[in-house]
Amino acid sequence: MTAQRQERNGSGAGAGFRPGIALIGLLAGLGTFAALAGFPTAAGAQTTERVIVNRYTGLAIEGYDPVAYFADARAELGRPNFEASQAGAVWRFRNESNRASFVAHPEIYGPQFGGYDPIDLARGVTYAGNPRFWLIVKQRLYLFGREQNRDAFAADPARQLRAAEARWPALEQGLAR
Question: What's the whole-model pTM score?
Answer without folding.
Answer: 0.72
